[in-house]
């Protein structure tokens, strides 16, 4: 944040990405990272915050061993932004969660605790740390999880964070209090740390809420403190008493100038904001006719949505809605399944979007059946070939669409599956799918399923 050390230290040896500034050597001067300021303003605008024309950095003093200087450069009374909000959907209703502020500070060093001593790795010290503070508007652990997930989506779309909680790129410190139903005044809050997944956030808050309720019901008092979440035990444990603002002895950072943020610069940043998740969801429903569920799935993972966009970019305008529904509902889930089987991300997908487009073209041209398409997809995924090249190499024949040829097979299947036929005629109309499967088995997946289904219905409804 205030020096030129690399932040790409994840797999590097301890204390190798360091310099006199982040090591807190006497006499050195910090320099503000302009890109970090821009990212923070981008995030604040995406969260509907107002940006002041004047901001400054402050010294936050506390004597922990992970702070090389004995203080942290942060922001106190005049942050880079304030008064925003984020919308979440909980139990079918939209909830507005206020954003108090988005501000900048520097991260601390990393402590590794051993039996009787601790090790300090300064590599992380000084990394730009953007802190987003919400208003006390969240009313349940579930809402807290939904808020975190929505926030992560926005940060990933903006490109300001990878959003990977397990790597520490996104961290959550949750404050929670309880109060009797009907009481307006908030109870004493407790801060929870050490949560590294959305599920952990929800579980930790569920546990802590119950713990506080039990303490109060037994006549005890809630103490303002910091507690840690112990994942394998499913409990929170006390770490230290919680400091008040005056304990930090904030004062303006004397080694850094205040920031003057012009309205022109703010509007320039606003004009370069990318399409955000909510806007993309609405567009997918309006332009492609996707269901809300499919639109949500495609926009929760930005990379998956980008893949979908590239598939749709090669589709003719008149065919977009019907193809989009096929891609989102049928074929992208197949691609995701193959990725999961191989522990790959969508960014590592060996099947380029153009290959999925090619597969859909073969289906539209009735060059292959749906059953054959799944086999071709797996082969193309494994080899990186275009599906049409797989079809040619494997000598896959076009689907059987000759009704006279299929009629005999359909009659044989009906004659040899009396129980299924009885179920269908008794009102279990879905039973026909089992008969379709039998016909496809006998034709090695080459029969056109729509023709088979029509022939079966004709024969079954005749009796």
Account of the 3D structure:
With 463 residues, the chain is an alpha+beta fold. It has 4 domains: 1-135, no CATH class; 138-180 and 187-244, no CATH class; 277-394, no CATH class; 403-462, Arc Repressor Mutant, subunit A (Orthogonal Bundle), CATH 1.10.10. The chain has 15 helices and 14 strands. Strand 6 and strand 7 (117-121) form a beta hairpin. Helix 6 packs across helix 7 (302-313). It starts with 33 loop residues before the first helix and ends with a helix. The mean pLDDT is 91.
Level of helix content?
A: 40-55%
Question: How much of the residues is beta strand, in percent?
Answer: 15-25%
Q: SSE string, helix = H, strand = E?
A: HEEEEEEEEHEEHEEEEHHHHHHHHHHHH
Rg: 29 Å
| Protein structure class | alpha+beta
The description of the largest β-sheet is: 4 strands, mixed
Low-confidence stretches: none
Whole-number total of structural domains: 4
Summarize the entry for a quick read.
By secondary structure, the protein is of the alpha+beta class.
Q: What is the element layout, followed by pairings?
A:
Blueprint lengths: L33 H13 L7 E2 L2 E4 L9 E4 L9 E7 L2 E14 L3 E5 L2 E5 L6 E7 L6 H18 L13 E5 L13 E6 L2 H20 L7 E6 L4 E7 L9 E2 L6 E2 L2 H9 L5 H12 L3 H9 L1 H12 L6 H22 L11 H12 L5 H14 L3 H8 L8 H13 L2 H8 L6 H11 L6 H14 L1
Parallel strand pairs: 10-11
Antiparallel strand pairs: 1-14, 2-3, 2-13, 4-5, 5-8, 6-7, 9-10, 11-12
